[in-house]
Structure formats: C-alpha cells, structure tokens
Write a structure and sequence with these properties.
The chain has three domains: 1-48 and 265-396, no CATH class; 55-256, no CATH class; 445-669, no CATH class. 49% of the residues lie in helices and 19% in strands. The chain is built from 25 helices and 25 strands. The strands form four sheets. Strands 1, 2, 3, 4, 5, 6, 7, 8, 9, 10, 11 and 12 form a twelve-stranded mixed β-sheet that branches. Strands 15-16-23-18-22-19 form a six-stranded mixed beta barrel. It has a four-stranded antiparallel β-sheet with strand order 14-24-13-25. It is elongated and about 115 Å long. InterPro entries: ABC3_permease_C, MacB_PCD, Macrolide_Exporter_MacB.
Length: 803
Amino acid sequence: MKNMKTLKYAWRFLIRSKSYTAINIIGLALSLACTIILVRYIHREIQVNTHCTDADNVYIPLRDIDGNVFPGSVGADNGADTIYFQPEAIKERSYFITSCNDNVTIDEKPYAVQVLVADTAFFHFFNYPLKGKRMEAPEEALVTREFAKRVFGDKDPIGQTMEYSGGKHLTICGILDEPACKSSLTFDVVMNLNLKTKREWSRMYIELLRFMPGVDVDAINASSNVYRQTSQGFRIRYDFIPVSQLYWNKELAASGDDPEIWHYSSRSHILILTGVCLLLLMAGILNFVNIYLVFMLRRSKEYGVKKVFGVQGRTLFTQLWTENVLMISIALLLAWFFIEVFAGYANQLLESDIPYTAFDWQLSLGVLVLLPLITTIYPFIKYNYLPPIVSIRSIGGSRQSVATRTVFLFIQYSITLLLIILSLYFSNHLRFLQNTPPGFRTTGILYTNLVAVSKNWYSESNEQKNKHRQNAQSIQQKLQECPFIERWFCGNPTRSGIYGAGSTYALINDKDMKQNVMMMWVPVDFFDLYNLQSIEGTLPQKVDRNSQYLVVMNEAAMKIFGYTRREDAFVRGEQALWISMGTDGKIIEGGLSLMPVEAVIKDYYTGHLTAGKKPVVYMVSPNSMGAQYQIACKPGKEKEIIAYLKNARQEIYNTEELDYHWLEEDVQALYREDRRVSTVFTLFSAISIFVSALGLFGLSLFDIRQRYREIAIRKVNGAQLRNLYSILFRKYIWVTGGATLLTVPLSYYLIYIYTKDFVVKAPVSIFIYVIAILIVVGISLGTLLWQVNKAVRINPAKIMKTE
C-alpha cells in the first residue's frame, strides 16, 4: 500500500511538471536509442566466432614465411623442422582448406561458389544449425541456406547432386543455417576433405587444434615464433592464435587471401565506436540529471518541511528512485520504438544485419536497474544531507545548486563540442581519402568469373581439360568481339588485380643490397588496363615463353634499391622466384641471376591511402588461362557489357548467372570503416546537439524564470536592453568558452593519437574548430533567444506584484 502511494505521488508530480518531464524523457530516449544501437553492434562484433566451442582454447597455427603470413598447419611437409609439442598434447584436431570463387555444376548449369573443404571433425569445433544429416561419406556435401535458395528456390535440395572437378558427383545431405553469432568464415558449400588426396587438392591444409588441459600455449609460441632457416632456403616461424582472436588479426587482413571467405575487422574501429557510445550516453545522463535537479529545486521547500516532520533517508531515496524509474522506463520504451523504426537505416549505416537476441533484453534490464540508481545518487546525497532550514529558504536559488547545474552543463557542452569537432575532422578525412586520385584507373573496371572451371582443373582428365580449354577460348573470342570492351586479361583480382596482395620476397641488387619487397605476378596487359604510367623504359607488350618473366619496378622500389636510372637497375632473388621444367625434363630454378629492370612506373596507392605508396616489383608474365577476368569497359557501357556477358554465358554454359563486381566497389569497401566512423560521428553529434539544446531549453526556462524579479528591479532602475542581454547570456557564454578551451586541445590530441601511424592523412584545419564553435554558439543562442527576449520585455509592475 505504501509503495502504491509512493508510485502515485511520483506519477502525479511528473504529470504536473510535464514540460520538464517531456524534455527529460525525449532527451534520454534519443541518447539511449543511439547508445543501444552502438552497443548491440559492438557486442555482435566482439562475439564473432563464438559458435566455435571454447574459442579461446581452439588454436590455428599462422605460418610466417619470410614475412608472408597465412593460416596453415604444422608438419615436416609444411616446413616445420622442429617439434613444438608432443602428439599427446592434442585433445582434438581438424583440417580444412578454403577455395574462393570455385565452380560447381548443378543440372548442367555452372555456379560460382565459395567452398569450404573440411574433415568431419570440423563440426566438432564449430556449431552450425543443421537440417538433414551430417556429412560422412567423401561424396556427400553440405550447402548453406542462402545458396540453396539461390539455386533451388523453394525446392528441397537434400538428395540433389552437383558435379565438381575431376568428374566428382556430390550428394547434398544437409542444409546449414547461419550461426547465431557473426562468423569470420563464410562459404556456400562444404565438401569432404576425403573427396581427394592432399596432392589433388594442391592447397595447404589449415589446422584447428584443441590442446589438452594444462598445455602451456604461451611456452609453445615462445619456441615456435622464432624464424628458422629451412633446407629449401626460406625462413619460417609459427604463431598459434586462438580462434577468438582470428577476426582481429592484422597480418591476415593485410594478406588478403580469399577475401570472399575470410573476414576481418579492426579493434581501433570498435574502440572509436565505444568512445562515441560512452560520450553520447554521458551527455544523455548529464542532461537527465541536470533537468531533474531543476525538478528538485522546485520542491526543495517541500523536502525541507518533510524532513522537519521526520522523513527518513530511505523514504526520500525510494521517492526519488521511483520517479527516475518511471521516467527511464518511458524513455527506454521510446528508445526501442526509435530503434525499431530506424532499424533498416541503422543496419545500412553499420553495414551489419543485427538480429534480436537475448542480449537485447539483458541490456534493457541492465539499463532499467542501473540507470535509475546512477541518476538518483547525486540528488539523494544533495537533499538527504541538506539541513531543512537551508532547503526551505533556498527554494532553488542557492549558489551551490546554480554551480552544480553550470558544471553539468559545461561537461555536456564539452562532450557535444568534442563530438562535433571529431565528426568534422572524420568527414574531412573521408573526403580527402575519396577525392585523392589513387594513381590508376578506377572507373569501368569489371571483375567477373566467366569460365566455369574448378580451381583443381589440372587434376582432371584430358577430355575435361580440352572441354574447359574450348570453353575458355569461346569466352575469349566473345571478349574480343565485344564492342563495349577496351581491353581485358585473365587473372585473379586478389593476386593480379590493382589491389592484389602480392607476396614478400627477398631481392638482391647488383651491389648485393638485400631488400624485402612486395612482388606481384602480373600479365603484360596489366599496366595498360589500369592506365599505369611509365616514366622510364618501355612497358612489356609481349613475353615469349611461359618460363620467362620480365621485371618492372615502381619509383618507390627504385628508391629503396638506391637506383636513380633504370639502365643501372638489376635484381635477383635470394632464392628461386619460380620453378619450371625445361624441354629436357629438368627442373629449372628461375630468378637467381640478375635481371634488368625493363620499365619504371609512377607510384600509386596499392591499398588504403593512409598506408602510403609502397615499393612494388612486378614480374611480368604471358597472359594465362583461368576462370576470372579483369575487363576495362568503355565509358557509359556498364549495363550493356553485363547484358552481353550474360548472353555469352547463356550461349556457352546454358546459364545467365554471372558472378561479378566493379573495382569501384572495392575502392568503396577499402574505406568502409572510415565512412562508418564519419557517418556515426556526424549523426550522433547532431543528436547530441539536439539533446543538449533540449537540456539548455529546460535549464534556461527555469533559470531565467528565477531571475524575473531581478530583471524587473533592473528595468525600474533604468537598465537598457543591451545590459539585460549581457546579464542573461553571460553565464552561457562562459560555459561555451570554457568548453571550447577544454575540447580544442583534447580533440587535437585524440586526432593525433588516431592518425599518428598514417603515412597520408587529412590536415587538421582551424576551420573545423571555428565551424564547431559557431554551430554550438548558434544553436545555444537560438535556444536561449526566445526566452531571453520574453524576459527582457516583461512588465516590471506585474512582476513586482506577483513575485
């Protein structure tokens, strides 16, 4: 009964103070909505790969060969010359490989697929919802729900067959649904590792290891993560990392191996979003507490009288807590309404489809339990220990109350100004990245999987090889005849594309200077297709034999080798750069003799602009055969070329399915995190401005109303309008000025920390500070102006009678 009376009293008071209640609830709801959206996204990111059982104790060995890092396995056939652990230290292990942009045939129609080839133990490590039965026999395969819908529509795919390289016919035995968490490994089809021998797969196995309890993995890493020279001439080391850290690994992300299957992210990106989240939540809470203190000041006489009549601290706390719970509950419901309404935009902004999970109600419950306690503590301490006589006399006019509200407003303004400055810088930095020419052609470059050939085509029969060769020749004839194509060549974009990762090799010049440098293997048409500019020498137009390669360098590579003239430049490999077979059947190790540099090209950005222009050596080879093609399209003919290629596929393969994307999409993807950070800062700083304006409106509504009597007396004594404006605006100008003095150096320091490792970055312009200050001052003055105008035009006689 007593609790119901407290609840009714709290509700009645909130209804009476409807203006302040509305301001408080709307401001907190907006702040909570933005915070919850970011927290849900951050939670989903840090929960990546949690469908792996005990992900912190399942390890993948990273094999580092002369600076080239990729996931692998440990064994003598993989270069390991040392036993890092005993067999009995392993509780369970699994092997798998990935095959990006592979091909399967279903109902005589080819489909480009991302393939995971794994043994049956793989699903002891990773849990996927499964419809059907587990993969057991070598000729059985699993497909994902998305791939099944793409190929079979609403038809049940279980029991259907598909053909893979070497004439292998696979029976689909089950459908895999997406795991509840996000995965760093995505695929379309799962095949059994026993379908072929290791030699036939011709890919390096990747190993999953679950160690026995008590095994010291740190001690294993201390031994394995040291370079050792192998008998083949290269250096190798291993680093065993847990699956839980796989998503954040910078070395693997930089290698760019099978990017359609392996996915990575950056911890710095999550830290930035976490900072935005905390700042916005703090701004919302400060605004809420500040407005609530205005509530309290209007009731200080009431609390003083109650304390005179013996009200205990527990009763006061219960009343304050109940009022806060009511307002926060309404704000939380309103926040979830905003989240639901703008869910599509939020998912598009964060480029992540965030499902509703148990974490959502746990988060809401945490907000509902903790936030009322946080917002109640200060008002309770303030009024519980305030002497009744002081509370009765002040009725909102105490200097301490004014100082407290001013401090809260100062912190809130500092947060808002900091968010605006950072959002302006990140927006400027993003424009700088997107508008700086990368040094090569980006428009009209098409990457497409045209030839339906498996990655393991060389293990097929001669009849199948001849069929693939004929189909490839037919495709190439179609490309030659296409009026919408300027030029083309066959090559995997992840290797021979303009953003190809390449590999690190140790090269030695004619002065025995050794440099570890990025090397790319490209066909002769690479330079013309991307409009790369030669500044010395002549770019190769033809390479005579498959066993011959020509060397091209960029300016940065010439510089690190100490060359100023192309004619003087010669390099060779520290070990064989390629291996071929001579006409007599003998193995030939190439690249060990000094090779002249045929041409020098102008530097361009090989990746993210902030990494700068890197030294690159190009080994130019003849055009090769394969599934993927890079095509330069004539301007304005993008739609026509896609239609043309689909018709060509229909004619040759009886399907119009075409797997393709544009280089411009890769450029956009390169700056995805920069764009996300910029947009989040811009949007949330705008919301912070709105929340701060709401808070300022509520505070000024009370503060200026409290000074009506003072204004009236000053007007009677002859004060002019400019004097009154100066008096009423003074406090807020000081608050804005103080916030500016704090946030300008703080924001500059944060920008410096963020960009200190960038080779290329947008300059910090004074204009972003000027614009940010003008925005805050303009909105503040706009918020205050109506109330100040109303106050300075009051009738002194009327106020003296009523006050």
